[in-house]
Every structure is written in C-alpha cells, then in structure tokens.
Amino acid sequence: MGTREHEIYDIVGIGFGPSNLSLAIALEEHEANTSERPVRAAFFERQPRFGWHRNMLLPQATMQISFLKDLATFRNPLSRFSFVSYLHESNRLAQFVNNQDFFPTRQEFHQYLEWAEAGVRDRVTYNSEVTEVRLVEAADGVEQHLVIVVKDTVSGAAREVKARNITVSTGLVPRMPDGMERDERVWHSSEFLAKYGQMNPEDLKNVAVVGAGQSAAEITKYLHDMLPQAQVSAILPSYGYSVADDTPFANQVFDADAVDHYYFGTEKTRDAFWRYHKNTNYSVVDDDVIRELFRRSYEEEVAGEQRLHFLNLTRVKEVKRSGSDTRVVLHSLLDGESEQEMDVDALVFATGYSTLDATSLLGDLDKFCQRDEEGRHRVERDYRVVTSGELSCGIYLQGGTEHTHGLTSSLLSNIAVRSGEIVDSIVERRGAGEKV
Ligand code: FDA
Ligand code: NAP
Fold this sequence. Notes:
This protein is of the alpha/beta class. The protein is built from 13 helices and 19 strands. The strands form 5 sheets. It has a 5-stranded parallel sheet, with helices on one face. The chain has a 5-stranded parallel sheet with strand order 10-17-11-12-13. The chain has a 4-stranded mixed sheet with strand order 1-7-6-5. A hairpin with an 8-residue loop joins β5 and β6 (145-152). This is L-lysine N6-monooxygenase MbtG.
C-alpha cells in the first residue's frame, strides 16, 4: 500500500492482527454508510503477510469462541466480512451447518481471517515495524499531530507517517520464566511450529513441555502424535490440567455488556470478575483435550508401554545447555525438596504471555498519559488512553486494558463491537474538534 508522506491520517494502526483487521473492516463499513469525509486510516504490520499465531496452527486445534464472534457480526450482522459470508463464498455453508459445531478449527478460522484481510489489504503495509511515536506540537498553521516511525523490516530503512490518532494493537508478548533463555532446543510455544520444523523428528527422542494451559496441552498432544517413538513429558506446575469453563452463565463475562459492567463497576465488581471467572481463560484447557490426553496415558498404562508422562506439581529450576545436550533440573513441589534431572532433545515453555504494554512504543509521549495507583494506563470507555490537556491527539488501545475493560481485552470475543466503538469515537471527536 502507498501511504502518503504529507497526509495527516485520522488514525494509524500499529499491528495488523485480528483487532486492527476488525477495525479496518469497521472503517470500511462506516465509509460505505456515510456522506461525511472518510476516516483516513493506514495500518502497519511487521510480519511479511497476514498471520494469526501461525506457530500454533496445530492440526485439529479448535477455536475457543463461537464462529459467530467473528470480525464483524456482533457489530453488524449484515456485514459482508462475517464468517457466514466467508463460508458462503467458499461454498461450504451447508457442510459447515451439517457438521454441527460452533467451534471451527483454528486453521479454518485462519483461512477466514486471510479471506477478510484480502478485502481491506489496500489499507495495510507489511514488513513494517513501528519503532517510535513522537509528538509534533502545533505551530505556524500546522496542527498538533503524531509522527509514527516505521522501519522496513527487509531493507531496514525508516520512514515517517503522520496521524491525529493511533491505535496500539500489538498483541500479547511471549513470557519465559525468569532466567530461562530460548535457543534452537529451548522454545516458547509462540514459536513452536517454526522451531519444530527445523528439527529432524528422528533426533527428538525425549521432549518436554512446561505449563498447564491450552498451549501446553495442545503441544503435548501434538508431540505425542508426531513422534511415535519419543518419550513425551508434560511438566505441570499444578496437580493436573484444569478445565476451561465455557458453560453458558460463565461465558457471559465475554459479552459486550460485561465490558460496561466491568468498566463502570467498583473495585469489588472487578475483583469478582477475576476471582470467579479467571478459569474461563487463564491456565486452563478445553475439556476434550484433557480427556484425550488422559485416555492416551491410561491406554499406555494398560499396555505397559508408558511414553506419555505427567510430572505434576513440578517446576523447572534450571536448564543446562551444551551443544545439542539439554539437561533440565526439576523441582518437585510434592515434598518441596526433591530435585530431578532430565535430559531432553527439545524443551517447550508453554508458559503464557504478558499483556500488551504500550509504554516503550510511546516513548516520550507516555508522559502525557495518566496512570492509576498501580501504574497502569488510565483508559476511557472508548479505549482512548486518558491524557493530559496538552495532548489533543488520541492513543487507543486494543489489548492491555484488562484492568479497565475486563477479560475480553486480549481476546476475540468483543473485537467487532470494540472496533465499532473506536470508529465512533474517532468520528465524534473529529466532528467536535475539527476546524476544516
Ligand atoms: P495479535 O497478537 O493477534 O496481533 C498483533 C499484531 O501486531 C501481530 O501480527 C504482530 O506481528 C504485530 N506487531 C506487534 N508489534 C508491532 C510493531 N511494533 N509494529 C508493527 N506490527 C507489530 N482468543 C480468543 O478469543 N479465541 C481463541 O480461540 C483464541 N485462540 C488463541 C490461540 C493462541 C495460540 C493464542 C496465543 C491466543 C489465542 N487467543 C484467542 C487470544 C489472542 O490474543 C487473540 O486471538 C488475538 O490474537 C488478539 O488479536 P490482536 O490483533 O489484538 O493481537
Ligand atoms: P496460559 O493460559 O497463561 O498458561 C500458561 C501456563 O504456564 C500455566 O499453566 C502457568 O502456570 C504456566 N507457567 C507460567 N509460568 C511458569 C513457570 N515459571 N514455571 C512453570 N509453569 C509456568 O498460556 P497459554 O496456554 O499459552 O494460553 C494463552 C492464551 O491463548 C489463552 O487465552 C488461551 O485460551 C489461548 N490459546 C488458545 C488456543 C486455541 O484457540 N486452540 C490454543 C492455545 C492458547 P500458573 O497457572 O501457575 O501461572
């Protein structure tokens, strides 16, 4: 896409995962339904092409939300960008319905996302990493605006783009336990398929996966499938996997209404959301995956050929690396004392993610952003960071708002509605402040 150097965009989107893809669609649909000047937008993504957690696109892994919680339907049920529209265009609608499953595979949903992206591709530039955002103060007929520095990830060249607003949608950040380093034998789940693909499966005779969340369980199952001769160990911090609560009452925490209840609630309200419903998403695993892993383990026990091992209440204390040798020092919480060493050919840390934090990207701009007592950004209901009066430009967050907007912050459940709210906010604020 050709972004224009002299243009001041109404909004520049940083990152082009599902959140900003959904925003691009909301902008497209706003434009089609208004006679006002269009919202001028540009998006930058550091990947070479669209990709949604590609390294975890494991066969048979399913979505954790209904297909109806797609990029647009909850905001606009008539959208041409809906999952149903994608199925129709792919000539698969009838078969999808016959399959009677609310939860498509992640691979099918990825195909849907790619199909939707093709419809708004003119708004996004790939191989483009945003490295800095600066403020340019109003002067001599130039209005206050932001300068977004974009690095071409292929050539390394940097260029600048101007905007009145940005939306930071850079996603979750892979988290390794303290002191653990990644390398060609020690991986985080976010790089799993790429790293696994670089190995000769015959060299993988002992593999281990750390963690008890969905990523850990799916990778354990995958390695057990793909390496029929290997010993596969699951190193669980818990006594066993816990089930993800996706029953109907609990699932209401992902509704659009729940954002208001959370945002306008008291500290006690917000605490209650986390205390009672954290198990809808964090450190939990889908019921069918848990049962499948247990079934496999039991079958092996019956056959007297155990190669799937569950080391419960166990944590990795140290990883000793030398060439292709990897020795893992394990600490058992069963007695709080015993240590065990295990040699592995590959070790996967499926230890989760940290939430989006825009601080480093915002640089000096961050001094205009207000923070709460715990040092977190204050955020308005329309996802705009609360800033001091000198800054008229807007910083919108898609992600990193768990403390203000609740559990859906880093998930897909509410992105269609959230995108619409951000478009409305930009249009309303533009109408209120624009001098043109
Ligand atoms: P996402 O991380 O998808 O995208 C951010 C993008 O920004 C990336 O493409 C990245 O390259 C880019 N980027 C980062 N920094 C940049 C920079 N400085 N410049 C330019 N580009 C930059 N949720 C759910 O509701 N249902 C589900 O089924 C799942 N499934 C799921 C599977 C797996 C394996 C994981 C790890 C997570 C999920 N999730 C989920 C949660 C997940 O956060 C969610 O699905 C989306 O990825 C959120 O979309 P975003 O666009 O916000 O972030
Ligand atoms: P997660 O749910 O945060 O789980 C991380 C696991 O690692 C937890 O069991 C955690 O234990 C453990 N852990 C963290 N630090 C550790 C340490 N130092 N030592 C040992 N264990 C440690 O992360 P995730 O499984 O990657 O899931 C992240 C998100 O992606 C979730 O929203 C999930 O639903 C989603 N996801 C979806 C799919 C899918 O759609 N099919 C697939 C994978 C992931 P504690 O509980 O003790 O912290």
